[in-house]
């Protein structure tokens, strides 16, 4: 399906997504003062959701769970995106670090 395709209301997918995100903002704000809690993995899908929230001009924060097993390139990318979202859109990207590293969870025999 092409991005330019219109739905029954005459809107494309981006317009429809933005409309839906805006329509639930009041619910998100009732649950948390930061608004939407958007999980950010650093992948294309979470980037699209984050940018749709920017386009919708809703209140939200991005959250990433650092797994300690991600490729270094992904870790650097997430750090770069944290700076980019803050500088360009004044959006916080919180990186949550685990209490224990994955490699320390399993005993070595």
Automatic annotation (TrEMBL):
Gene3D superfamilies: HUPs
InterPro entries: Rossmann-like_a/b/a_fold
Name this protein carries in UniProt: PAPS reductase/FAD synthetase family protein
High-level lineage: Bacteria, Bacillati, Bacillota, Clostridia, Eubacteriales
